[in-house]
Amino acid sequence: MKKIITLLLLISVISTYAQNRYSTISTSTYTPMTRSEIMSVPMALQAKYNENQKYLYHLKKLVLELKTSIKEEPFLGRLNEEYGFLTFMEDKDLARATKSLNQSEIDINEIITEYNLFVSEQNSKKPATQNLPENQNPPESQQSQTNEVEDFLNEGNEYYENEDYSKAIFSYSKYLENEPNDTDVIFMRALAKSNIDDKYGAISDYDKILSMEGKVTPQNYKFSTVYNNKAYCLVELGSYKAALPLVEKALQLDKTEWFIWDTRAEILLNLGQLDKCISDCTKAINIEPNGNSYLVRGLARIKKGEKTKGCQDLSKAGELGEPTAYQKIKENCNKK
């Protein structure tokens, strides 16, 4: 059984330096630069060089780790090309190589995504295992394999609890190689993928679960939540119209969860249906007061021209811990 490869995407902070080429300062008012000012640019370049050098070595290490698991062509060949490019870049001006390294990271992620799709297709062709009669114990080797499979599940849960989502995804995937129809674990893997912004991967897992609706009895999730979560992945991708029928299906199944009303409210806000958005936010808040629903309702009210009420909602969102509330207050409430 082939492996699913996962990756916690890297986040690079790129600092840019700009200088006015057309100075209007006359020689009579010129002030000599201090030594610290003169050295600031080369020091900044050196800092960027050091940062990109670590970035490059991290990417090379990642490619080497992937090559131990990926043996199929053309994926292995593409990894070799990326490794060759990174080796070539070692002798270049790394202080100005951020763009090239970012592109290399994107290319590596594309290889991983395409390989995962390839492996998923291969795993879907795996025949279902036969259950042994109740009075027949499995061979010792099979029992050992069962224990190993359970270990992957336990590891995945532990990694998830510790918010180490990429390792959780890997462990869940190893478990699912042997239990491909365990939708409870597929659901957990989807959550982990969503938490590291692998929205398309999460949607793929939610689709697998929905394809078995009516055939399985979930223990750790509700199908209404699956419809909602897939819808919210589409929201985060900007596909509001595609998300709307999914969240409406979720509401048909369950009207008691605040987050489903909240998801539809966010969709309606982006579709310009402000009155319906405000109504859904209020329903979500009545079930459970939460920062996001106050945030969305506040933005909808401001768009309607109800600035006072809207800004009061944004303030309440901040009180409830919504991290973007105060930025929205600056943008919408502090202007005359």
From TrEMBL:
Q: Which InterPro entries match?
A: TPR-like_helical_dom_sf, TPR_rpt, Ycf3
Pfam families xref list: TPR_8
Cross-referenced Gene3D superfamilies? Tetratricopeptide repeat domain
Name the segments for region: Disordered: 126-148
Residue ranges with Polar residues bias: 126-147
TPR repeats mapped onto the chain: 149-182, 224-257
Q: By its UniProt entry, which SMART domains does this protein fall under?
A: TPR
Entry keyword Signal: yes
Instruction: Work out whether the entry's keyword set contains Signal.
Output: yes
Identify the PROSITE patterns for this entry.
TPR (PS50005)
Keywords of this entry:
Repeat, Signal, TPR repeat
Q: Where in the sequence is the signal peptide annotated?
A: 1-18
* Full protein name: Tfp pilus assembly protein PilF
- What species was this sequence derived from? Flavobacterium xinjiangense
